[in-house]
C-alpha cells in the first residue's frame, strides 16, 4: 500500500510540474518537460505494478514495465540529441528564417548590399544576428535613428536575442574583407 500512495503522489507532483512546463518553447524547457513526463510515466508504471501486486503475485511485471519505460526514454533522448548537439555547436537556424531576415533587410530602400551575415541559435527559439549593411547614401542623425527604428521593427517578428549590424558605405572597403 505504501508503494501505491507514493506512486499517486509522484504522478500528481510530476504531472503538475510537467503541465506547468508544457508551453515551453526553448530546448531547455522542452527537455525538462520530457524529463518530467518520463517521471510521470515511471510513477504510472509503479502505480500499475502496485495495484496488480495487491491482487496477484506477478513479479515479472515490474521488469517488463521498466524495460518498456527505458526504451521509451531512450527513443526520446535519441530523437532530441541531434537538436541539442546543433545548439551546443551554435548551429544556424533553418535556412528559411535566414532568407526571410535577408529579404526583410534587403527590401529597405537605403540598403545596397548585405554581407558577413551570421545567424545562430542560442536555444532553438532565440537567435543572434550579425551583419554588415552597405547603405547607398550618407544620412544625418535623425535619419540614422529612423533607420534603426525601421530595422528594429522589421526584425521584431524573428525574436532575435542580440543583433549587431554594422553600416558601411558603397565606396567604403569592408574592414573584415580578406585582401589577396
Tell me what you see in this structure.
The chain has 180 residues and is α+β, with helices and mostly antiparallel strands. Helix content is 58%, strand content 17%. The chain has helices at residues 2-21, 27-55, 61-88, 95-106, 141-155; strands spanning 111-121, 127-135, 160-169. The chain has a 3-stranded mixed beta sheet, covered by helices on one side. The termini are far apart. 8% of the residues are buried.
Spans of 5+ residues with little confidence (pLDDT < 50)? none
Could you spell the SSE succession in H and E letters?
HHHHEEHE
Numbering strands along the chain, what is their spatial order in the largest sheet?
1-2-3
Oligomer: single chain
Overview features:
2 domains; three-stranded mixed sheet; 180 residues; 5 helices; alpha+beta; single chain; Alpha-Beta Plaits
Task: Provide a concise account of the structure shown.
With 180 residues, this protein is α+β, with helices and mostly antiparallel strands. It has 5 helices and 3 strands; from the N terminus they run ααααββαβ.
How is this fold's topology laid out?
Elements lengths: L1 H20 L5 H29 L5 H28 L6 H12 L4 E11 L5 E9 L5 H15 L4 E10 L11
Helix pairs in contact: 1-2, 2-3
Amino acid at each position: 500500500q505504501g508503494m501505491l500512495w507514493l506512486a499517486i503522489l509522484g504522478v500528481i507532483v510530476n504531472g503538475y510540474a510537467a503541465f506547468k512546463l508544457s508551453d515551453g518553447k526553448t530546448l531547455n524547457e522542452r527537455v525538462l518537460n520530457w524529463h518530467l513526463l518520463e517521471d510521470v510515466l515511471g510513477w504510472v508504471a509503479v502505480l500499475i505494478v502496485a495495484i496488480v501486486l495487491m491482487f496477484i503475485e506477478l513479479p515479472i511485471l515490474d521488469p517488463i514495465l521498466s524495460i518498456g519505460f527505458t526504451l521509451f526514454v531512450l527513443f526520446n533522448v535519441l530523437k532530441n540529441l541531434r537538436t541539442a548537439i546543433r545548439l551546443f555547436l551554435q548551429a544556424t537556424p533553418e535556412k528559411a528564417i535566414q532568407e526571410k531576415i535577408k529579404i526583410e533587410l534587403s527590401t529597405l530602400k537605403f540598403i545596397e548590399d548585405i554581407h558577413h551575415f551570421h545567424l545562430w541559435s542560442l536555444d532553438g527559439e532565440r537567435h543572434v544576428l550579425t551583419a554588415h549593411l552597405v547603405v547607398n547614401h550618407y544620412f544625418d542623425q535623425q535619419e540614422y535613428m529612423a533607420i534603426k527604428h525601421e530595422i528594429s521593427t522589421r526584425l521584431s517578428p524573428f525574436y532575435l536575442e542580440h543583433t549587431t549590424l554594422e553600416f558601411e558605405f558603397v565606396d567604403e572597403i569592408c574592414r573584415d574583407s580578406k585582401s589577396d
